[in-house]
Amino acid sequence: WASAPSTKTLGVETRLVQGHAPQPDPYGAANMPVYVTATFQQASATEFGDFDYTRSGNPTRTALQSAVADAEGCNHCLAFSTGMAALAAVVRLCSSGDEVLLSDDSYGGTYRLLAKGAKEAGVTVKYVAMDGPDGPARLERAFTDRVKLVMVESPTNPMQRVCDLRGLSAVCKKHNALLEVDNTLMSPLLQKPLALGADIVVHSATKFICGHSDTMAGVCCVDDEALFKRLYFVQNAEGTGLAPFDCFLALRGLKTMALRVDRAQQNAIAIASYLRQHKLVTKVYYATSDDHPDRELHLSQATGGGCVVCFTTGDVELSKHVVS
Questions:
Q1: Is 182 a catalytic residue?
Q2: Active-site residue, 207 included
Q3: In 10 A of CB 28, how many CB atoms?
Q4: pLDDT reported for residue 167
């Protein structure tokens, strides 16, 4: 697995299985209970406890955030109702008149959010090809004094284009702009963008973190305390925190994330190899394939290719048949 600076003595797989049970707990629960409550009793009219209203904070959500932060190797994590809610909170860091530079190969929901939502808020969005070894240079040429945020995925979904996260980070730091990386395809285990210089990492936790297709969730991971507080303010003000029961389901999913990611990646490698030899397949896209142009770049910042494989057939009807 990818690593980040840590003082932990147990492996991440063990820490995920052990979970983040409440401390102290009078009953010694092995798993985090679901705190299905809107409000919490306070000691008095002037003395407040750790929690008062679930929109602002909930013990089950705190446990999930702590567990994801542990897996990601970061200081802070915020759990949102969906991955798009997490991305929307990141975009809220920009003000009218600011510019966002978005990778020209990004998730469709991200395009929609920025093309309409950001535009209506007075934020200008520009699309830049940031993949490959020349990505940082293209990013540099696209910068203006108004750029406050750069948003990328690596590898991209589904075309598997790889971005030089270290290089992009250096450009962003030079211009005092934030770099956000959507790390969904890699999970917190295969790649750690914060350790590579990113400021914000977002996951659609619906995918590998939850893992059972029964929960929608998103997370934002950061190291910087001030940035965490800005994102938390947006989450609390807009009420986009993940509900307690969904947090419980995500915590359950985390316990098996290492096993699932490992097996899914093994299957993806086998499928990519099979497709590459199939007479009806014209091109296979997978980040660690020998013929991927940026394979070495990807392996310099990640420990595997993940589980998404993309391929073309050159025949619309055949592709429809495959998808159906």
A1: yes
A2: yes
A3: 8
A4: 98
Q: Tell me the one-letter amino acid at 108.
A: G
At 24 the pLDDT is 76
Is the CB of residue 123 less than 8 Å from the CB of residue 183? no
> What pLDDT, on a 0 to 100 scale, did the predictor assign at position 21?
74
pLDDT of residue 26: 80
Q: Residue for token digits 């270290």?
A: 166
- Measured in Å, how far apart are the chain's first and last C-alpha atoms? 34
Burial 95-104 (b: 16+ CB within 10 A, else e): eeebbbbbbb
* Amino acid found at 81: S
Q: Please count the other Cβ atoms lying within 10 Å of the Cβ belonging to residue 47.
A: 7
Q: For residues 113, 144, 182 and 170, what is the CA-based torsion angle, rounded to 10 degrees?
A: -170
Residues of the chain under the 50 pLDDT cut: none
> Which are the contacts of 134, defined by CB distance < 8 A and separation ≥ 6?
none
- Answer yes or no: 55 catalytic: yes
Residue 175 φ then ψ, to 5°: -105, 10
For residue 309, what are the contacts with CB-CB under 8 A and spacing of at least 6? Answer: 268, 271, 272, 275, 284, 285, 286
Residues recorded for the chain:
324
Assessment of whether the complete model's pTM goes beyond 0.85: yes
Of 35, 98, 107, 223, which one is the catalytic site residue?
107
Indicate which residue of 15, 161, 192, 207 is catalytic.
207
